[in-house]
Design a protein that fits this description.
Layout: H1 2-6, H2 17-26, E1 34-40, H3 46-53, E2 76-78, E3 87-91, H4 102-108, E4 116-121, H5 127-138, E5 143-147, H6 150-160, H7 172-197, E6 205-207, H8 210-217, H9 228-240
Parallel strand pairs: 1-3, 1-4, 4-5, 5-6
Antiparallel strand pairs: 2-3
């Protein structure tokens, strides 16, 4: 194994039956519930995304804690009261905050027991993101690549274009439309390139705003939607088409 690692070849580690049982017990795994996990680097917005899926705001009682620094140190379980008997959501500790190699993150967090994993990224793909995708493929776990905080990213693009909130209030929508299309196009191409460079199959990236997703989850659709509706639709379709709900 050491010689393979020296050549940059990451070892394949298959969990034992006992490790699987312990991992399931840790996350309160139930055979009749579909378990979604959200993983990604620290600060990528995992906790806010979990809250959005559960129809909660970040300050609501029982919401996943959010903050500037990484607040998730252990995998935490959350439910949407509207689907409490069907779905469970899990917030995984941010990669990059734990003293473990990228290739060990998947196994150390017991991600192999989940029914579906969302790989959330902010600005760029990391080696841990690639390792998660590779391991999910190995364990036949459905994955969704998600980029969050899109409202803030689009605003940053607008500012790079010279937008000034005080001076350009009358043409804000024009700036927004151009920045939005640029951001979406750039994000999709970036993910496509990253997947190709890592020799992964091409896969869609869902571009979302957590605030917008939270409103969509409550059936209160705002005007500015990117991929929020399609993400929810595809996630729930994946669950309902699985053997658990057959």
């Amino acid at each position: 194994m050491e010689r393979r690692m020296e050549k940059g070849i990451q070892p394949v580690v298959i969990p034992t039956v006992e490790e699987v049982q312990l991992a399931k017990a840790k996350v309160q795994y139930k055979d009749d519930v579909f378990h979604f996990a959200v993983a990604g680097i620290a600060g990528s917005g995992k906790s806010s995304l979990i809250n959005a899926f559960c129809g909660m705001n970040n300050r609501d009682p029982g919401a996943a804690p959010t903050g500037v620094s990484e607040t998730t140190l252990e995998i935490s379980r959350y439910i949407n009261l509207a689907h409490s008997e069907q779905f469970a959501w899990y917030d995984a500790p941010g990669s990059g905050t734990l003293t473990i190699p990228d290739w060990q993150y998947f196994n150390s967090q017991g991600l192999y027991v989940f029914d579906c994993i969302l790989v959330l990224f902010d600005n760029r793909f990391t080696m841990t993101d690639q390792a998660i995708l590779a391991n999910c493929d190995r364990f036949k776990i459905p994955t969704f690549i998600v980029r969050s905080k899109s409202d803030q990213h689009i605003l940053n693009v607008m500012k790079d274009m010279g937008y000034d909130a005080d001076e350009d209030a009358d043409c804000r929508e024009q700036f927004y439309h151009i920045a939005r299309e640029h951001y979406i196009s750039e994000t999709r191409q970036s993910v496509k390139n990253n997947l190709a460079e890592a020799n992964f199959r091409d896969q869609r990236v869902y571009i979302i705003s957590n605030k917008t997703l939270a409103r969509v989850a409550k059936d209160n659709w705002p005007k500015k939607i990117i991929d929020e509706v399609e993400l929810l639709t595809d996630l729930y379709s994946t669950a309902y088409l699985s053997s658990k709900f057959a």
